Amino acid sequence: MSKGTPWSGKSTIMKQMKIIGQGGYTSEELAAFRLTVYENLVDSAKDIILGTRKIGLEFVRDINREYATQILEYEIEADPSFRLTPDIANAIDCIWKDPIIATVMDHSSEFYLLESADYFFSEVQRISQKDYVPSLGDVLKAEAKSKPKGIVEMTLDP
Predict the structure, then answer these.
(1) What pLDDT was estimated at residue 27?
(2) Is 84 in contact with 128 (CB distance < 8 Å)?
(3) Which of 102, 128, 139, 145 could be 89's S-S partner, Cβ–Cβ 3.0 to 4.6 Å?
């Protein structure tokens, strides 16, 4: 049994136990994490944009102001066949590479940002590929938007 407060790492431990104790994830199980990874990536980009505004900073590159609007309006569809568009991947990549981001990150305690956001930003081009299947690293870093409540059962083979 694993008990603890929300966001304390329980699901990460369960994922690690599945990888070590059960030989990992099938390709279907990995694919099931795709939308969670997309949500983590896009939501983190939105959080960076809103955090930048909150602390009163502007993006250095003019195009990133346009990209910020595009990202804030972008929605992930709850459809397993959904894929990120190359345009949104490029917008996120450009925002993350804006020179102001280092200063924004110095103020990251002033706004919410997923702990693994930098991981997903650095992998945006791979994640946005049409044939993308999450890697084990992606699965370990991914955090479900709404954590399940109650009991989650996993049986580990001896």
Answers:
(1) 79
(2) yes
(3) 128
Answer yes or no: are the C-beta atoms of 142 and 12 closer than 8 Å: no
Residue with tokens 């390709």: 27
What the block records as the tokens of 26 is: 């099938």
Amino acid symbol at 74? Y
Residue 79 structure tokens? 């459809």
Amino acid at 86: P
Distance between CA atoms of residues 2 and 15, nearest Å: 12
**Rounded to 5 degrees, what are φ and ψ at 93?**
-60, -45
Judge whether 129 and 151 are in contact, CB under 8 Å. no
Q: How many other CB atoms sit within 10 Å of the CB of residue 78? A: 8
Give, as one character, the DSSP assignment of residue 22.
S
For residue 7, give both structure tokens: 């966001």
Q: What percent of the chain has pLDDT over 90?
A: 70
Interval 66-70 mean pLDDT: 98
Interatomic CA distance for residues 12 and 139, integer angstroms: 9
Task: Name the H helices within 55-155.
Answer: 62-73, 86-96, 101-106, 117-122, 124-127, 136-141
